[in-house]
Predict the structure of Methylthioribulose-1-phosphate dehydratase.
Amino acid sequence: MSGALTTEARQQAWMRLAAVKEQFAARGWFPATSGNLSLKVQEDPLVFLVTASGKDKTESGPDDFLLVDGDGQPVEATKNRPSAETRVHAALYRAFPEVGAVFHVHTVANNVISELFFAQGRVSIGPQELIKGLGIWDEDAVIEVPIVENVADIARLAEAVARVANPRVPGVLIRNHGIYAWGESPLAAKRHLEAFEFLFQYRLALLQCRAALVGV
Ligand SMILES: CSC[C@@H](O)[C@@H](O)C(=O)COP(=O)(O)O
Ligand SMILES: [Zn+2]
């Protein structure tokens, strides 16, 4: 199937994903090999480039990514395994055909927010200027980021993420695990992820300041 993909298209996708991986690694967004990234290279049938599983993502090499199909199966000979969470990426590409890239990171901020607000099933954020980074330009917009349980069965996790995913708010939190954010292009997915992480950090800082001020 990947024979239909030109070497040039594969190389271009590789370079774009490698650049994102390097930037996120520099921010400390891949602690202890966590996180995974993907970039769609073919719509129908679905083929995407995804990070190999279990690698130290602060390092770069020829085995960093592999091409997989819509079932998460490698479409070329490889000794590497695709990300253990490849099915979540596939589910998001299937749910939203306009999505071109899906990024997943574990940060302290997204984990704490996911735990604090899990009981509500979502965290409401806003009004906040950086919501515009998600492509939402309404004045005083308030967004709701869904939060799902962190189940070990990845097929169930993928199904849960796709079920609550809202195309208008391009991210889903997984409880005490991390966030999946997406966009039409790698640049858009990166912008969305940066906006979410800013909003989570802001929310945590605000909660901490308010708690510290009680009784002052
Ligand atoms: C090393 S803890 C993180 C993993 O369990 C997983 O959640 C993760 O994000 C990375 O898995 P991977 O298979 O490398 O893509
Ligand atoms: Zn993860």
User: Anything to note?
Assistant: The longest strand covers residues 36-42. Strands lie at 36-42, 47-51, 65-69, 101-105, 122-125, 143-148, 171-174, 178-183. The CA atoms of residues 78 and 204 lie 42 Å apart.
